[in-house]
Predict the 3D structure of the following.
Amino acid sequence: MSKQKVLRLNTEICNECGRDVSPGSGLFINRIIDFDDYKTRKIMNKPFPKGGYICRECDEKLNNIS
Ligand SMILES: [Zn+2]
């Protein structure tokens, strides 16, 4: 039993488009934290379930679906 391998499931990418939203990427400022966990995002069929964020562009797209 080793605790050395801690899986970092939340990476600083948009879970919709996979783009980098880390500081300095240009999408950092308007990124939105996605409070769903990895499992939930998998179930929701997110293209990039590891991403702990949604960029502003994707958020707008998601909100415009009617
Ligand atoms: Zn995005």
The first strand starts at residue 11 and ends at 14. The CA atoms of residues 60 and 66 lie 12 Å apart.
